[in-house]
Amino acid sequence: METSKILEEVVQTMHTISDINAAASILNWDQETYMPSGASETRAEQISTLETLAHQFLTGERSRHLADKISGLNGTADSEPLLKLFIHDFERASKLPEDLVRRTSRAQALAQDTWKHARTEKNYAKFQPVLTELVNLKIEAAERYGYVENRYDALLNLFEPGMTVTQLNPVFDNLRTATAEILTAIAPNLDKVSDAPMQGSFSKEKQMEFSKYISGKMGFDFNNGRIDLSTHPFCTSFSQYDVRLTTRINENDLHSCLYGVIHETGHGLYEQGFAAKYARTFAADGASIGMHESQSLLWETVITRTEEFWTFALPKFKEIFGESVAKYTPRDYYRAVNTIKPSLIRTEADEVTYNMHIILRYELEREMINQTIDLKDIPEIWNEKMRRNLGQVPKNDAEGCLQDIHWSFGGFGYFPGYTLGKLYAAMEWNVLQTQMPDVRSKIANGDLMPIREWLRENIHQYGRSQKPAEIIKRITGKPLTEKDFVEYAKAKAMDVYQVR
Asked: Do residues 305 and 352 lie in contact, with contact meaning Cβ atoms separated by under 8 Å?
């Protein structure tokens, strides 16, 4: 009875904090979509006020009193996810003073606008002062959070609970080696595969029509969600009943809009799939960035890049785009969307070389947070790593170190989740094929809802109530490994490029 009463108080407190955070998220979403450019300063203050208020509620006297009550249950709360989450978030938030939260929130809101201007002007020097401020703020936070071996672990743990530099380094080293091996194997046949079917002249309206059609087939509920345009595609939600996706459109290339929408829909399905009992609580969130990415990447890079997917999608595709795509077959599109070619831009990279973009960013921000590099040297270091890893050298800062928004919103520790998502997705795909032997025929028939339901049953409904390591072990029976992804990527590359 006592546990039940404490849980009721905790849920009420979570509702208040979640509502404040949702309001801040709406302001962030608006900032990236419809906000007039002159509102940046005011918007930064508004977001800062809300995020500081949420921090006050989470660390205030009432929450402290609740935490003491939970501790007094002598371990019986361990079986209740919401109580465990409350204690975890309370203890973590309590390590940051209110002034640091306010300064960080304001700096991040202003930095995003500065990043946009610096990127447009291709001028890293314009962004460096705010980057310096953000790095210093994150170093201060990391020291307050605490860590055992590496300062970067404190920030990495915010996005991927339990993950450390010590665990990541060998995984990333193995991926670097595997990527080089794949590129070497397909090198003689590189000119035999082209993404020409995805290139041409395609109106924004038709691209959005087809992309929304695929999103709906995947199971995205447009009664509880919408798609808009933004500079950088993203998914955000204010509850599982209000999920917002954004994309960007290149009228000469179908990849950007279509696969951007598919990727964000994968995120959106996760957000819409949380159990109803977790609404407006701390559990209504992804288990980690990596687990969230696995939900988008399973759809974007695995399911919808199969020949079976294009067997289903091509008739509708031809109906919308007409003569310009009439001559192509599902095999043509399967090969076109799986081309492997080192490139400068992370969001446009193929699934094999993409990991090299993440490893570069991981290494850079790990060194930034550990203060082992000078921030003025970022463009030079970036360009050298791109040359060494992918044989590409950016012509300017917009193609290089300014291409991503993440550092401007203080997302240090976020990038590794993208590659972890690929690893989780490959592991999930292997199990899905075993448990649903006809999954490929379902895809070929456009019957995608059973896949969504499998994901909802095994992953989505739990939200943040289970840790990523617990989820992947429960589903696959083994801990995180890069081996499933490497085997999957090699097999696809050999098929697409007809390497025997």
From this structure: no
Question: Domain check: are 140 and 216 in the same one?
Answer: no
Assess if residue 129 is contained within a domain. yes
Question: Could you write out the DSSP letters of every residue in 342-357?
Answer: --S-GGG--TTTHHHH
**Would you state the structure tokens that stand for residue 188, as one six-digit string?**
């003689």
Question: Which pair of structure tokens corresponds to residue 293?
Answer: 């990415």
Q: Kindly state whether residues 411 and 305 are assigned to the same domain.
A: yes
98-138 pLDDT per residue, tens: 899 999 989 998 998 899 999 999 999 999 999 999 999 99
CA-CA distance, 489 to 352, in Å (whole number)?
7
pTM of the model: 0.93
Contact criterion met (CB below 8 Å) for 285 and 265: no
Look up residue 192 and give its DSSP letter.
Answer: G
CA angle 318, 201, 208 (to 5 degrees): 60
Contact 431, 125 (CB under 8 A): no
Average pLDDT over every residue of 205-226: 98
Could you confirm whether 271 is annotated as catalytic? Answer: no
Buried b (16+ CB within 10 A) or exposed e, 298-329: bbbbbbbbbbbbbbbbbeebeebbeeebeebe
Q: What are 186's two structure tokens?
A: 């397909």
Closest CA to 167 of 489, 429, 482: 482
Phi, psi of 206 (to 5 degrees): -70, -35
Closest to 464 measured CA to CA, from 187, 237, 260: 237
Catalytic residue among 264, 399, 428, 482: 264
Structural domain range at position 406? 165-496
Q: Tell me the residue length of the chain.
A: 500
- Tell me, yes or no, whether 239 and 103 share the same domain: no
Provide the mean pLDDT of the chain.
Answer: 95
Residue 157 within any structural domain of the chain: no
Tell whether 159 is covered by a domain: no
Let me know the angle formed at the C-alpha of 306 by 303 and 310, rounded to the nearest 5 degrees. 105
The encoded tokens of residue 232 equal: 């950088």
Please indicate, yes or no, whether residues 93 and 222 belong to a single structural domain of this protein.
no
Q: Report the C-alpha gap between 373 and 410 in whole angstroms.
A: 18
pLDDT tens digit string along 448-463? 999 999 999 999 999 9
